[in-house]
């Protein structure tokens, strides 16, 4: 699970001070944690919140008077819910800590140290999600075992489960093959008893290897024997399995005469594992090998390396050689890759033009050397594709598989992120994620991105996409949301969440804001020259609130390009205004002299968002996208949206709903009195301002 802006933390705050609770919410949001807070003012409200939709965490002040800590703990304990409690304290000693733990608190956080609060919240949230995931997986596993059990019973294949060499399960086909009437006749019998005496020694060696955790062979030919002494040639297929929570082996045993020619069967199986174009392993076979490697890491702490590779500028290459030569290019790249890896490395065609390499028993240094050697193998060699000779470079994303990341989905996700990051900063490089060496890898990655961002600012390599903001009532007007993208060297677009966190860390957000504002004003001027009056909404960051030159820059750009300031709307996140209120007020008042308006985005997720509007004169409020989730069917979200619309109308503020995805949501927004809507249901964002507002 990814924790951040796209996953909302449902937080129950028990604190007498609204300002103190709001400060914690803002601190969490400023750290990138999306929060959906609730604050009860009495025990009845607390009980209602506990009984209502599931909460994630409870933060309770140790000295809370409205709802005392002891009552909070009693109510949560009585609910029977897995609802972790973090107690907020001003100071801490050993006796106090033990008392709070004995009361049932999961953790204690020093409220005056926001870093400690943030770390404690994240730790408990991750632990909670791990417990939830375990419960879901446990239920799914029981259901899966039940279904598998039913399938095994009805299967025509003779199937048995073996634990420590003994039968613990066998289906009817298996019992019939050996002439047993019921499972009781075979329960606890050794599998060796069903193997011909002349094959027993060889079979014992196999069982000993399997007991040591070695991978079972896909096929094992032997001679079976029935209790009456009958012999027949047989083939066994082994698979690691679990039965009633115990690790065991699943054995499928078939009579040899029922099978096709063994040599032919092996050839067919080999072909089934290969990609027909490149001759490399196919995706399914590679994933099984990766699962085995991950299992080995989890059980034995054995390190392995995974690399994902993709030719740089693939679309451009196809333009050069023609679409009809695409297969030749992929085949040539696969051949080059196969010749550059080691004899023990597992290579596969993972997707259309993406390849994967699994380097077994490989530590960070060895995996890094392999990634660099593969990069050089392509960069230093001409690849022949039909009649074309190409210098093809590759981008590589890798993961050092270790105990900290022994999960196939997480490994592939990290490798894919590294691959996309390598592509985004120009290609012909590799990024290797190693949980045990994250500092080194992170420094290299961040340095490359900082350089890439600086170049984009200097060389005008950012791109603006536009999403129409459609009025739901009154006369139509042209208004667009501006969305920032970064143009990659191959023409692809890099999404902002890939580079904005790095830009923030290295104090580049202010420069990016200046670029976006300047570009927006020029675009408005271009539209004015063709008699199109278009309003643009531009996001600015916290860095701009601290920028003494921002107001002056906006005024200069408007004057230079002859733009009506009323066509520019600056948007600031609600949480940033709350924590930088004085600076936000100065920016709003400063740009107001040019006619520029300021709006609040991500509105509604604070404890009392409308209280902020008594101190900050926002022209627009943009409702946080989390309220659009299942808006057509969620009574809770519908009620909040109607509340926002009603209070905004009372205050003379206009409302915008973003991330609108379906007709049901549109109907709710219209009836609630929301002024504007935007989202994929109306029109996706794109590089042109061509929406028909009429």
UniProtKB/TrEMBL annotation:
PAS domain mapped to chain residues: 164-214
Tagged with keyword Coiled coil: yes
Coiled coil ranges: 127-154
Pfam families with a match to the protein in the record: EAL, GGDEF, PAS
Domain GGDEF: residue ranges: 302-435
An example molecular function term from Gene Ontology annotations: cyclic-guanylate-specific phosphodiesterase activity
UniProt organism field: Agrilutibacter solisilvae
Key words of the record: Coiled coil
Name this polypeptide is given: EAL domain-containing protein
Alphabetical GO biological process terms: regulation of DNA-templated transcription
Matches recorded under Gene3D superfamilies: 3.30.70.270, 3.40.50.2300, EAL domain, PAS domain
